[in-house]
Amino acid sequence: MTDAKPAHKRILLKLSGEALMGDDAFGINRSTIVRMVEEVAEVVNLGVEVAIVIGGGNIFRGVAGGSVGMDRATADYMGMLATVMNSLALADAMNKQGLVARVMSAIAIEQVVEPYVRPKALQYLEEGKVVVFAAGTGNPFFTTDTAAALRGAEIGAELVLKATKVDGVYSADPKKDPSATRYTKISFDDAMAQNLGIMDATAFALCRDQKLPIKVFSIFKHGALRRVVMGEDEGTLVYA
Ligand SMILES: Nc1ncnc2c1ncn2[C@@H]1O[C@H](COP(=O)(O)OP(=O)(O)OP(=O)(O)O)[C@@H](O)[C@H]1O
Ligand SMILES: O=c1ccn([C@@H]2O[C@H](COP(=O)(O)O)[C@@H](O)[C@H]2O)c(=O)[nH]1
């Protein structure tokens, strides 16, 4: 029995939307979302304050064909709405698991979820509730990675955790280049200079300027989220 304490008091967890598909072609795979929530519950039960941003790739990429030739901003609003659906599904699964989750949207959609109001989000976190930030930044031409950086900075998170389909940042996309090697850590400047596609440059730049480190790790690896929160060796650290 160990009484080791978490290395972080408040975190911003960015969950991959695409990972929610599991082995399905698109949408939300029930057992995958339940597994993700079990991992989240582990760290919430350690007393860590958890805010979440979830991507929309599992839904949005499924309808992306329909957005071909569409006005870019309109297609981006569709993408943001996809993240609202994922956020609702995630919060529902968390509530069923015994956690208390609140969804806050960057786009006004008040019959469905409450609007993002920073002091309210901070209050929820202090009360031990999990806050899910939906609709990205609320602006087209951005991504949910940037939303994670933005909300992470706003709520004073100590770390942004990017839980994705790969187990860290590689010298090239490991899905395209099998010879790519994984970094245990890399500076924001180096990641940006090498144009590493794991996150967009806006998200990297915001975190670098705010000195907000990022850990990239696999959401499919059991216990990885807990190990990151405990400060153990897992994934890749991106630092200022
Ligand atoms: N240098 C790199 N190191 C690691 N992964 C990389 C790199 N370059 C590109 N990738 C790819 O980036 C993907 C993760 O980024 P992406 O933003 O698409 O996913 P996500 O955030 O998990 O999904 P979503 O947008 O659905 O939330 C990985 O699956 C990997 O194939
Ligand atoms: O702030 C934001 C966040 C997202 N979008 C749009 O949504 C999709 C899905 O987000 P992912 O980060 O790719 O999962 C994204 O492709 C954008 O089209 C946005 O416009 N603004």
From TrEMBL:
Activity modulation: Inhibited by UTP.
Pathway note: Pyrimidine metabolism; CTP biosynthesis via de novo pathway; UDP from UMP (UMPK route): step 1/1
Binding site for UMP: G56, D76, T137, G138, N139, P140, F141, F142, T143, T144
Domain of life: Bacteria
Keyword set, alphabetical order: ATP-binding, Cytoplasm, Kinase, Nucleotide-binding, Pyrimidine biosynthesis, Transferase
Protein name: Uridylate kinase
Subcellular location: Cytoplasm
Gene Ontology cellular component annotations, sorted alphabetically: cytosol
Binding site for ATP: K14, L15, S16, G17, G57, R61, T164, Y170, D173
EC number in record: 2.7.4.22
Major place of residence: cytoplasm
Pfam families: AA_kinase (PF00696)
Catalytic activity: UMP + ATP = UDP + ADP
GO molecular function terms noted in the UniProt entry: ATP binding; UMP kinase activity
Protein encoded by which gene: pyrH
Protein source organism: Ramlibacter tataouinensis
Family designation: Belongs to the UMP kinase family.
An annotated GO BP: UDP biosynthetic process
Annotated ranges, domain Aspartate/glutamate/uridylate kinase: 9-218
Function per UniProt: Catalyzes the reversible phosphorylation of UMP to UDP.
Oligomer and partners: Homohexamer.
